[in-house]
C-alpha cells in the first residue's frame, strides 16, 4: 500500500474505538486498533471467521502490510467490496428481514465459539447478489457468561420494531428509519403497535419500551454492575433462537399496491413487450455498461437485460415496496448481481447523520455508466409537474448513457394521469421531449415500440456537460 | 464495548431470556413425552404410513423453541 497517498477516513466510521474504515488510492481498508487485538485474534483463531465466510454471512478480508503502523494501530484489513452500499430505509420488507436473520445467526454462531456481536446495527448489513452480508469484521467481542446481550436494544430498534410495523401496520413505516438513524425508538413503536401482533410484540416491544422508559435515568455504570451475571448461556441461546423463529415467521399478507401487478395490467400486448425488450437489449449491447441503474424498475424485467456480460451490476430502483419485494425474491433465488432498492425519484434518499455525512446520497455512493428510464418520465413530467429540461439536466449529472422511453399523451397510461386534472403541459410532446433532452444529450438512436405509440431513445451525454 | 446497552433493555432481557430458557426446557420435555407415546403406538398397532403433519408444526408465537441439547 502506497503510504504516500492520502488516507481518507469514512465520515460514518467514528463510533467504535476498535478501528476505523478509510479509503486510500481508490481502495477501502479497515484499520484494527491495538485495543481490539485480543478480539480480532480470537475471531480468526476460534474458527468463527472461517465458519462465517463459509456460510457467506460476512465479507472476507485480507490483511495488508502497512509500514510503520503507529502505536495505536494493530493491523490493516482490506475487506471484500460491495458494489453499491444501501441503507435500511431503502430496503423492502424481505431485505430487512434477511438482514435481521443474518444478524441473529451470526450472533448465534459466535456464542458457540465464545464470542458475541457487540452491536446490531442494520447499517452493518449489505447485500451481495441477493444475500444479506455482514460487513463489519470488528463487530465481535468476547462472550462473558452471565452478561446480557449488549446489542439487544439496538437490535429491537433497528430490526424488530420496523419489521413489526411493516408487517402489522404499513410497509411505508420503514421510512421512519430515515428519520431515526439509530433505529425506531421503542416507545414510538409501542404506541403504534398497540393491540397488534402476539406475544413477540408484547415482550420485545411493549414490555421492552416500558422497561426502557422506567429506567431512563439510571447511570450506566451502576446499572451494568448490578445486572452483570444474570443470564445463563443456555437461556441466551434459547432467546436468540426464539427471536430467529419470530423473524422467520413474519410475513406480508397479500398486499396490493398501485404497482404490484403492473406488468399484468399494462397496455402492452405480448408483442409490444417483446419489441421493447429487443430494443432495450440492442441499446444495452451497444453501450455495454458495467454499472446500470434502472429507475422505475418494477420487478426487474428490463433491469435483467443489463446483466448479460461479465462483471455487470444493476441497481433496480422502484417507488413501490411490493415491486421491490418481488424483485428481491427473484434475485435471492437466482443470485444475480442485481440490487433491488426502494427509491422515490421525486424525493430520493438524502445524506443524513452527523454533518449530513454519515449516510450519503445515492449519487455519492456510485455513478452508473447507463441509466434505464423506461415508462417513468411521464410520471415525473405530469404527475410531479417536473419540466423536462430539469429531468434532462439531472440525468446528465448522473450518467453518460441514457436509455429512455417517451410515452405520449395519446397513450392510455398518460390519459389516466390527465383524467382528473387540467392539461397544463403544452410542451409535453415528442418534439418537446427531444428538444429538452437535446440540450444535455446527443440522441444516438430512436426506435418505436411495436403496437404502441411509445418511442425508446438511446442518448449519450454531450461531453461539454460532463462533471468532474 | 462502545454501545450504551441501556439499563432498561438489559433488565427486560433477563426476563425474556429466562422465559425462553423455560420454553426450551418445556419443549424438550414435551418432545420426550410425544416420542414416548409414539413408540407405544408403534408397538401396539403396526402404523404403516408416516404422519402427514408438517414437521414444523405451528408453535405459539415467541416461545417454545425447538428441542435442543442444553449447554451446561
Task: Note the topology.
The complex is a heterodimer of chains A (468) and B (72).
Chain A: E1 8-9, E2 19-24, E3 27-33, H1 37-45, H2 48-54, E4 61-64, E5 73-79, H3 93-112, E6 115-117, E7 125-128, E8 131-134, E9 140-142, H4 152-168, H5 176-179, H6 186-192, H7 199-214, H8 220-226, H9 233-249, H10 262-265, H11 270-287, E10 291-295, E11 313-318, H12 321-334, E12 338-342, H13 362-365, E13 370-373, H14 377-383, H15 388-396, E14 401-406, H16 412-418, H17 430-438, E15 441-448, E16 455-461
Parallel strand pairs in A: 10-11, 10-13, 11-12, 13-14
Antiparallel strand pairs in A: 1-2, 2-3, 3-5, 4-5, 6-9, 7-8, 14-16, 15-16
Helix pairs in contact in A: 3-4, 3-9, 4-6, 4-7, 6-7, 15-17
Chain B: H1 7-44
Quick summary of this structure?
The complex is a heterodimer of chains A (468) and B (72). By secondary structure, chain A is α/β, with parallel strands linked by helices.
Throw out a few tags for this protein.
A: 468 residues; alpha/beta; 7-stranded mixed β-sheet; 17 helices; 16 strands; B: 72 residues; mainly alpha
What does this entry look like structurally?
The complex is a heterodimer of chains A (468) and B (72). Helix content of chain A is 38%, strand content 17%. Chain A has helices at 37-45, 48-54, 93-112, 152-168, 176-179, 186-192, 199-214, 220-226, 233-249, 262-265, 270-287, 321-334, 362-365, 377-383, 388-396, 412-418, 430-438; strands spanning 8-9, 19-24, 27-33, 61-64, 73-79, 115-117, 125-128, 131-134, 140-142, 291-295, 313-318, 338-342, 370-373, 401-406, 441-448, 455-461. In chain A, helix 3 (93-112) packs antiparallel against helix 9, helix 4 (152-168) packs parallel to helix 6 and helix 15 packs parallel to helix 17 (430-438). The relative contact order of chain A is 0.09. Chains A and B meet through helix 4, helix 7, helix 8 and helix 9 of A and helix 1 of B.
Amino acid at each position: 500500500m502506497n503510504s504516500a497517498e492520502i488516507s481518507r477516513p469514512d465520515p460514518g466510521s467514528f463510533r467504535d474505538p476498535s478501528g476505523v474504515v478509510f479509503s486510500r488510492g481508490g481502495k477501502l481498508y479497515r484499520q484494527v486498533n491495538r485495543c481490539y487485538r485480543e478480539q480480532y485474534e480470537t475471531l480468526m483463531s476460534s474458527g468463527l471467521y472461517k465458519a462465517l465466510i463459509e456460510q457467506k454471512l460476512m465479507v472476507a478480508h485480507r490483511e495488508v502490510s502497512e509500514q510503520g503502523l503507529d502505536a495505536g494501530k494493530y493491523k490493516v484489513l482490506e475487506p471484500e467490496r460491495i458494489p453499491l452500499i444501501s441503507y435500511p430505509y431503502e430496503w423492502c420488507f424481505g431485505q430487512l428481514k434477511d438482514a435481521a436473520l443474518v444478524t441473529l445467526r451470526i450472533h448465534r454462531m459466535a456464542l458457540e465459539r465464545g464470542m458475541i456481536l457487540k452491536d446490531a446495527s442494520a447499517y452493518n448489513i449489505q447485500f451481495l447478489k441477493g444475500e444479506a452480508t455482514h460487513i463489519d469484521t470488528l463487530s465481535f467481542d468476547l462472550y462473558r457468561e452471565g452478561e446480557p446481550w449488549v446489542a439487544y436494544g439496538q437490535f429491537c430498534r433497528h430490526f424488530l420494531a420496523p419489521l413489526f410495523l411493516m408487517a402489522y401496520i404499513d410497509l411505508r413505516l420503514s421510512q421512519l428509519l430515515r428519520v431515526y438513524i439509530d433505529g425506531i425508538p421503542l416507545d414510538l413503536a409501542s404506541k403504534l403497535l398497540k393491540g397488534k401482533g402476539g406475544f413477540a410484540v408484547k415482550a420485545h416491544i411493549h414490555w421492552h419500551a416500558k422497561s426502557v422508559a422506567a429506567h431512563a435515568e439510571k447511570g450506566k455504570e451502576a446499572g451494568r454492575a448490578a445486572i452483570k451475571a444474570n443470564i445463563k448461556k443456555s437461556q441466551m441461546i434459547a432467546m436468540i433462537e426464539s427471536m430467529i423463529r419470530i423473524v422467520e415467521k413474519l410475513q406480508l399478507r397479500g398486499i396490493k399496491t398501485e404497482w404490484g401487478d403492473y406488468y399484468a395490467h399494462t397496455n402492452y400486448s405480448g408483442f409490444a413487450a417483446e419489441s421493447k425488450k429487443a430494443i432495450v437489449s440492442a441499446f444495452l449491447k451497444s453501450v455495454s455498461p458495467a454499472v446500470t441503474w434502472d429507475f422505475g424498475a418494477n420487478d426487474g424485467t428490463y433491469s435483467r437485460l443489463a446483466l448479460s456480460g461479465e462483471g455487470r451490476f444493476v441497481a433496480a430502483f422502484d417507488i413501490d415496496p411490493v415491486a421491490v419485494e418481488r424483485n428481491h425474491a427473484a434475485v435471492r433465488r437466482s443470485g444475480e448481481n442485481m440490487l433491488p432498492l426502494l427509491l422515490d425519484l421525486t424525493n430520493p434518499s438524502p445524506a443524513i447523520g452527523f454533518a449530513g455525512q454519515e449516510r450519503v446520497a445515492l449519487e455519492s455512493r456510485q455513478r452508473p455508466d447507463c441509466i434505464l428510464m423506461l415508462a417513468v418520465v411521464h410520471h415525473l413530467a405530469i404527475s410531479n409537474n417536473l419540466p423536462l429540461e430539469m429531468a434532462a439536466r439531472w440525468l446528465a449529472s448522473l450518467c453518460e448513457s441514457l436509455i429512455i422511453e417517451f410515452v405520449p399523451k395519446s397513450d392510455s397510461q398518460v390519459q389516466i394521469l390527465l383524467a382528473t386534472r387540467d392539461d397544463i403541459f403544452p410542451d409535453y410532446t415528442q418534439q418537446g421531449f427531444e428538444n429538452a433532452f437535446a440540450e444535455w444529450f446527443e440522441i444516438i438512436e430512436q426506435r418505436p415500440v411495436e403496437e404502441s405509440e411509445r418511442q425508446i431513445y438511446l442518448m449519450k451525454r454531450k461531453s461539454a456537460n460532463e462533471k468532474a | 464495548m462502545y454501545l450504551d446497552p441501556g439499563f432498561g433493555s438489559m433488565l427486560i432481557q433477563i426476563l425474556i431470556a429466562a422465559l425462553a430458557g423455560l420454553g426450551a426446557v418445556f419443549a424438550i420435555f414435551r418432545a420426550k413425552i410425544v416420542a414416548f407415546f409414539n413408540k407405544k403406538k408403534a408397538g401396539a398397532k403396526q402404523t404403516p404410513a408416516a404422519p402427514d403433519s408438517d414437521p414444523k408444526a405451528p408453535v405459539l408465537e415467541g416461545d417454545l423453541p425447538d428441542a435442543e441439547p442444553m449447554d451446561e
